[in-house]
């Protein structure tokens, strides 16, 4: 049992192994990866799993979702905020830290059930003094402005004075270890005592001068007696430090609690921030860490009741799936509709906290089925930014609404046009210019969210308007080619970014066609059911019957490339003319090895692709293709997909099952579930791959459990359990009902109605009433 590595203080509360992710040794060059794996967030804010005592190789970032800044960098990105984790303990000037002492014992453990990060360190300093340091931290989900570090310190073979620094560090820099990209997004505006004691730092973003206040108070206890004495506050430039000390006796365990609170100007006026943080800490101290922790764990208990997936018989995979769910559900905000879920959650700096199509197509299905209120917030975020999407479209010469490829807080395009190569040359980045399918993803997300949740209110008052404006965008994006009497989309990039730009990317054309075709019947339905809503919509959007007719015409005549006389869908016009290279080797993690022929050739000259593209289309629009066609295309593209993006393996897993290739599906699920845990893409240090976390959930629920919705929205379950699994259990919301689903090794399905109305479900094709 992993918890046996800890002493009683922590052990008693720690969960069993299926909830725990262990770091067994401290390796400096692995530290950044663990900072991502051990990130904690509560939807409002996120912190990376950095050590309190500081290490050389570290990116100790705190983010508050929605606090963006650009300054001299390429785009608005989540600003790294003052780091409040710092606690340094010294004995006779020797820092008791992982990099200053000999490590005799080391464990850090993420307890996913309780959303805490625990540690056990037995450290020996240069003078031979041995100290046991254990502890845990959490970012409370019961009160999102409260965070806490609790440490237990035991001098094993000495007695003496322990000197402590309680630190907030305002000098943090985004992309700190990337010299060319480093940027400081904040400046310190206050560095002072919290109240009489304690520390407070206020920093503001450089562009918008949005203030963020962080307060901390540290106390040391023995048997409830407060021990910290000689408190002295220092403002060392951008560091706030409170010094204190206490006398420690050999063999005695002392408890240190660091109470932390963060508020920003997004929640209150600037002049109130300091007081808010101080009051919060005061209340937090009155309530006590134990009560807060109990509240926090209570919220997670409820969340896990909704979100947990249990896979019996496949322990490592069961835990890895849980790890993905943990990060996805932790980062999203159930209370706020001004924020989205960034491509790296709140766990790392890559992609600046921006939302991509990743949200709608990979994460939203999870939220719609598991946390519908969060899903609604995510959708409302897009509605709030509809006007900005219209500005984007206009700027680029189109009509309607064009959602940005990368979206932050203002809804304008955040994907840079230029970036810098390691040799200093500028590199033109064409992604935002050509990759337009995100606009279709937003539209599809609305359709899918409403289909799952039945949230007609959202559809009538927000979603329908987005669908009209996105259809308008696609109509203006398509070009009529007279000699062929068809509509085409030129100069476009599909999901596979290694071929950019191309003409007529099948995925994009199909989704544009879907969006254009979806709106008119929907409007007819709204006109019938809600005439007042319909009138308002038409008035607001100025949509005419003629415009709708033109959409119909484009939909009918849009070009969908396919190899003549075969079942093979062509990823884009001319794809089959490219050099036909296939993948032949796989590495020890079952990851495809780049074909040797690509050494002297760009992937764009060949049929090798970065990620699921045609297969992604079949994943979204399976009903459009016959089973034989899906199988043939899956086999063709699978041999040519290098999975250079984390958005790919999960889609190949779900689709592997659809085409009857169960063993491939299982292999792909393993790749997806362990993608970050085993750092399979080599960049976990930059944050958890958010889309993949949602993809993992989809693979289990839509793939192996075979959950789907019929055209009318009836829930269907047709599992294909892998031979490795004994039993699968999970819960989902569908419209007004909450269901528990058990699936046995033999694919027998038991469905229990946990709450809501009596319900029709189709199991293995047979109607069942619950
Ligand atoms: C992928 C995109 C994805 C982005 C953010 C890129 O590498 O190709 O499909 O949206 O990462 O996750």
UniProtKB/TrEMBL annotation:
Residues noted as binding substrate in the record, renumbered to the chain: 357-358, 610-611
Residues spanning the signal sequence: none
Key words of the record: Glycosyltransferase, Hydrolase, Transferase
Active site: residue positions: 497
Domain (Glycoside hydrolase family 65 central catalytic): residue spans on this chain: 322-698
Pfam families per the UniProt record, alphabetical: Glyco_hydro_65C (PF03633), Glyco_hydro_65m (PF03632), Glyco_hydro_65N (PF03636)
Residue stretches making up the Glycoside hydrolase family 65 C-terminal domain: 712-770
Domain (Glycoside hydrolase family 65 N-terminal) ranges: 23-266
Gene Ontology biological process: carbohydrate metabolic process
UniProt GO MF annotations: carbohydrate binding; glycosyltransferase activity; hydrolase activity, hydrolyzing O-glycosyl compounds
Family: Belongs to the glycosyl hydrolase 65 family.
Name used for this protein in its record: Glycoside hydrolase family 65 protein
């Amino acid at each position: 049992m992993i918890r046996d590595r800890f002493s009683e203080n922590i052990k008693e509360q720690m969960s069993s192994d299926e909830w725990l992710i262990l770091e067994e040794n401290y390796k400096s060059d692995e530290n950044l990866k663990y900072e991502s794996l051990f990130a904690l967030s509560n939807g409002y804010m996120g912190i990376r799993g950095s050590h309190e005592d500081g290490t050389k190789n570290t990116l100790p970032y705190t983010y508050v979702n929605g606090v963006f800044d650009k300054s001299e960098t390429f785009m608005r990105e989540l600003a790294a905020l003052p780091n409040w984790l710092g606690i340094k303990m010294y004995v006779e000037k020797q820092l008791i830290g992982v990099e200053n002492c000999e490590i005799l014992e080391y464990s850090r453990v993420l307890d996913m059930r309780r959303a805490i990060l625990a540690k056990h360190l037995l450290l020996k300093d240069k003078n031979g003094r041995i100290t046991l340091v254990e502890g845990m931290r959490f970012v409370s989900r019961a009160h999102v402005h409260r965070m806490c570090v609790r440490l237990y310190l035991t001098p094993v073979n000495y007695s003496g004075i322990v000197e402590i620094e309680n630190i907030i560090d305002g000098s943090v820099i985004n992309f700190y270890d990337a010299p060319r990209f480093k940027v400081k997004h904040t400046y310190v505006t206050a560095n002072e005592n919290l109240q009489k004691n304690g520390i407070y730092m206020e920093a503001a973003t450089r562009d918008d001068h949005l203030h963020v206040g962080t307060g901390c108070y540290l106390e040391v206890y023995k048997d409830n007696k407060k021990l910290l004495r000689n408190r002295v506050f220092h403002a060392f430039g951008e560091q706030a430090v409170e010094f204190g000390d206490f006398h420690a006796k050999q063999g005695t365990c002392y408890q240190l609690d660091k109470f932390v609170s963060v508020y920003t100007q997004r929640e209150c006026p600037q002049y109130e921030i300091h007081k808010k943080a101080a009051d919060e800490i005061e209340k937090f101290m009155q309530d006590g860490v134990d009560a807060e922790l109990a509240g926090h764990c209570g919220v997670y208990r409820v969340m896990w009741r909704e979100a947990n997936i249990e896979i019996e018989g496949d322990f490592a995979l069961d835990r890895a799936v849980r790890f993905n769910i943990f990060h996805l559900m932790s980062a999203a905000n159930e209370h706020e509709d001004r924020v989205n879920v960034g491509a790296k959650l709140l766990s790392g700096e890559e992609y600046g906290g921006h939302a991509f199509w990743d949200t709608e197509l990979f994460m939203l299905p999870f939220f719609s089925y598991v946390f519908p209120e969060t899903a609604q917030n995510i959708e409302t975020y897009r509605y709030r930014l509809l006007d900005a999407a219209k500005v984007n479209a206009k700027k680029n010469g189109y009509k309607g609404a064009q959602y940005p490829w990368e979206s932050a807080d203002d809804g304008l395009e955040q994907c840079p046009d230029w970036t810098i190569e390691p040799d200093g040359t500028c590199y033109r980045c064409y992604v935002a210019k050509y990759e337009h399918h995100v606009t279709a993803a937003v539209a599809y997300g609305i359709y899918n969210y409403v289909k799952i949740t039945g949230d007609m209110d959202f559809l009538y008052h927000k979603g329908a308007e987005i669908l009209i404006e996105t259809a308008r965008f696609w109509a203006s994006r398509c070009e009529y080619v007279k000699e062929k009497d068809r509509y085409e989309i030129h100069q476009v990039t599909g999901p596979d970014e290694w071929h950019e730009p191309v003409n007529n990317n099948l995925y994009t054309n199909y989704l544009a066609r879907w969006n254009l075709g979806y709106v008119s019947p929907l409007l007819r339905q709204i006109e019938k059911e809600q005439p007042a809503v319909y009138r308002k919509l038409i008035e607001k959007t100025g949509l005419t019957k003629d415009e709708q007719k033109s959409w119909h015409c484009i939909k009918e005549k849009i070009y969908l490339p396919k190899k003549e006389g075969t079942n093979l869908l062509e990823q884009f016009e001319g794809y089959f003319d490219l050099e036909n290279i296939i993948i032949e080797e796989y590495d020890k993690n079952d990851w495809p090895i780049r074909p040797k022929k690509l050494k002297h050739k760009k992937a764009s000259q060949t049929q090798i692709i970065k990620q699921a593209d045609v297969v992604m289309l079949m994943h979204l629009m399976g009903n459009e293709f016959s089973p034989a066609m899906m199988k043939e295309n899956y086999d063709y593209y699978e041999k040519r997909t290098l999975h250079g993006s984390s958005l790919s393996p999960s889609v190949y897993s779900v689709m592997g099952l659809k085409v009857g290739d169960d063993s491939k599906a299982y292999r792909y699920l393993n790749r997806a579930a362990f993608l970050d845990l085993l750092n399979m893409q080599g960049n976990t240090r930059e944050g958890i791959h958010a889309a993949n976390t949602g993809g993992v959930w989809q693979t289990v629920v839509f793939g192996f459990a075979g959950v789907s919705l019929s055209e009318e929205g009836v829930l269907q379950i047709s599992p294909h359990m892998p031979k490795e699994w004994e039993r699968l259990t999970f819960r989902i919301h569908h419209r007004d009902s909450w269901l528990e689903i058990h699936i046995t090794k033999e694919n027998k399905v038991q469905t229990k109605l946990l709450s809501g109305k009596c319900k029709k479900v189709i199991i293995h094709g047979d109607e069942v009433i619950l």
